[in-house]
Model the fold of this input.
Amino acid sequence: MTTFMISPSFSSTFHTHPALAPNYLFRQTNSDIESQMTPLILDRESLYITLNRLENDVDLFHWGIYLWKGLAKSDGIGKYFHVTDRNCPDKFLYEETRSPDIRRAINVLVALKIAIVKPAQWDRLGELLSQVHIHELTTCRTWVLEALKALDKEGIVKLKDGGVENIERECLKYARIRGKIIQQSDYCKF
Done:
């Protein structure tokens, strides 16, 4: 694992993991019944907000941003961007991980499409997300919402009026249905 300090003014650490995303985030199906579940159908070269069910609480979700590149990409089929307090309970840290195919992950409740991102923008996307400020009140949810603002300002995501607040409500509405939902956001322009 390589660790980079973003800036002395930020209280965040940037982690790049060449390995796959943590197993607890994208647990693959493990029983005969689960393996027959219909996989999520993701659009190639698209950016999603994901809400993952946490094992210890059905009303709490882990928020992240997932770039689905597609099956034919040599550097992996997806990238997952999020903040986590997994290794440091008192502080959230940014992680960017090469991610497996999440289409059959059983704990992904919501994949909300927020943008189409062409390969020429992938590096810039990672740079922007690594620079989203993390402070003492940051959570995975608030980080995703701040990331949306940064991506909108840069033109990678195109939010409609009231987009951030409406996207937050949209994600929570779908997560509370308790099923696997893949949906294009009503609050982004495509």
